[in-house]
Amino acid sequence: LFPQVGHERKVQLVADRDHLIRTLSLKPLLFETPGFLTDEECRLIIHLAQMKGLQRSQILPTEEYEEAMGTMQLSQLDLFRLLDQNRDGRLQLREVLAQTRLGNGRWMTPESIQEMYSAIKADPDGDGVLSLQEFSSMDLRDFHKYMRSHKVETSELVRNSHHTWLYQGEGAHHVMRAIRQRVLRLTRLSPEIVELSEPLQVVRYGEGGHYHAHVDSGPVYPETICSHTKVVANESVPFETSCRYMTVLFYLNNVTGGGETVFPVADNRTYDEMSLIQGGVDLRDTRRHCDKGNLRVQPQQGTAVFWYNYLPDGQGWVGDVDEYSLHGGCLVTRGTKWIANNWINVDPSRARQALYQQEMARLAREGGADSQPEWALDRAYGDARVEL
């Protein structure tokens, strides 16, 4: 259907005109549609977001983080083995960099890791590599203490932006409803799936804003549950993730400088997490190395780009997360960047997704006209976090 990069086809998303869908990459399956939103619609979304009020996209959950680290039940040897991906008995800088969660919301660079090693005297010979002996003699409490005492600048965060959520269900602003209907036609998914997905997220990146490369959806293991279907899951599981089958991203303005969306490994022949960080270059770092990513999409007012975050399972449902969907927001060097995201939520458990849809339909029937499950949407996603 989409034989190659650059392939274009026309679709009718609104009554009076054709839209173009252009294939940007095959890994991940990524497309762009210029003029998906009109300039007026873009301005209205920004206006509604400003009226509602935006909040900082990332705060540092220091206490939660220490609690989580404390409950990990890992010995120092286990932790070393976990970090030592190539099993050579030495911890290279890039092996530590690969574990973004260790930074507690702070983006780690080779320099910041070496600075920490030096402060807690973890690397006596200063070569940036920790042997098992050096790692074992390190007191992890010193690491936590260092992370706690270090004042973090916004430029050091994984994500530097402000955002809010706009409801798109029944009774929402007519333009918000119209955009949701257009997304429905664009994605060709069932109305039940699209209507029960997250509200529209609107994001503002000021000058100096960025979002380091990440995937929009977390992997779903047996001990993980999807945020959107947890309301119908009986089982109690320790981890929750956002199950975002598709991302539809809208550019709401033209950006004066920077602010591209980068897909560092789009259409690479192979994917290897460790090869993202080589020779001091971290391809996930959107402040320093956006220019080295395989594909960059320039923000253009009204354009929508959309991609699939999961691979198919071969049986007509959602399979594993597509690691090639790794993407980020490049540093805004001049001006402000406004975008919006429509995430389409699908639970990799087909049975749980079906149960969720049935339950929402039942609530709608019982609740009468005002029965849209807004409680399951706006509230469930009010504090949604994107996996780092």
TrEMBL record:
**In terms of domain of life, where is this protein from?**
Eukaryota
Sections of the chain in a coiled coil: none
Start and end of every Fe2OG dioxygenase domain?
196-346
CDD domains found in the cross-reference section: EFh
Gene3D superfamilies, per this entry? EF-hand, q2cbj1_9rhob like domain
Which keywords does this chain's UniProt record carry?
Answer: Calcium, Dioxygenase, Iron, Membrane, Metal-binding, Oxidoreductase, Transmembrane, Vitamin C
Q: Which InterPro entries match?
A: EF-hand-dom_pair, EF_Hand_1_Ca_BS, EF_hand_dom, Oxoglu/Fe-dep_dioxygenase_dom, P4HA-like, Pro_4_hyd_alph, Pro_4_hyd_alph_FE2OG_OXY
Q: Which cofactor does it need?
A: L-ascorbate
| UniProt keyword Mitochondrion present | no
Q: Does the entry feature the keyword Hydrolase, yes or no? A: no
Pfam families (UniProt xref): 2OG-FeII_Oxy_3, EF-hand_7
State which residue ranges cross the membrane.
none
SUPFAM superfamilies registered for this protein in UniProt: EF-hand
- Name listed for the protein in its UniProt record: Transmembrane prolyl 4-hydroxylase
Q: Give the organism, scientific name.
A: Echinops telfairi
Quick one: which gene encodes this? P4HTM
